[in-house]
Automatic annotation (TrEMBL):
GO terms for molecular function: acyltransferase activity, transferring groups other than amino-acyl groups. SUPFAM superfamilies: Acyl-CoA N-acyltransferases (Nat). This is Acetyltransferase. Residues 15-178 form the N-acetyltransferase domain. It holds the Pfam family FR47. It comes from Actinokineospora fastidiosa. PROSITE patterns: GNAT.
């Protein structure tokens, strides 16, 4: 018996809020699969994703396979005081490196909030293309993200894209895993 070939990315598209809402179940299933989270995680994350869609500067880019299904997704928005992630990271950076470093990174940034690619097509450039398309034309000075610590494809991707350490081994409230916060100056170089 021969395994069916895995679908390949056919095109990249920007999704409007209403388009992501219509595909939210599919997007969250991709998130759970890519992150290897337990079933049930999607229901917990759905309200957060819906709230993020209302933030200033929100944008979303998706990779679609040859059947029109999500093969990858990335979204983010303009980071600002009062947002949970901003406050957590600002506190951590201030404690580790001082207020001046926190001000440098966090006064004008785009938060790359979510980036997920189907496991069977990871390592083929989809994630890099999603990031490049997501931040293309973003008027912020920096892009910031957080990712679990440890060697992973995500870390290799971010390093290849020029992300540097902003905060390492940080524990967000409510999550026992250590995270790295990475950042880089915008714009990205030409693709």
């Amino acid at each position: 018996m021969t395994a069916a070939p895995s679908p390949h990315v056919q095109r990249f598209v920007e999704l409007r809020v209403d388009e992501l809402r219509a595909r939210l179940r599919e997007a969250l299933d991709l998130y759970v699969t890519a992150m290897r989270y337990p079933q049930g995680t999607a229901e917990q994350r759905a309200p957060m994703w819906l709230a993020h869609m209302m933030r200033e500067g929100w944008r979303c880019v998706a990779a679609l396979d040859d059947r029109g299904r999500l093969a990858g997704i990335a979204y983010g928005y303009r980071g600002a005081p009062g947002q949970w992630w901003h406050e957590q990271v600002r506190r951590g950076v201030t404690e580790q490196s001082g207020a001046a470093v926190a001000d440098l990174w966090m006064s004008d940034y785009f938060e790359l909030t979510e980036l997920h690619v189907r496991p069977e097509i990871q390592g083929r450039g989809t994630g890099a293309e999603l990031v490049a398309r997501l931040v293309d034309g973003v008027p912020s000075a920096h892009v910031l993200l957080s990712t679990p610590e440890g060697p992973s494809r995500a870390w290799r991707l971010y390093r290849r894209l020029g992300f540097t350490d902003v905060l390492r081994h940080y524990r967000f409230a409510g999550d026992p895993r250590p995270f790295g916060v990475l950042g880089r100056v915008l714009p990205l170089e030409e693709r």
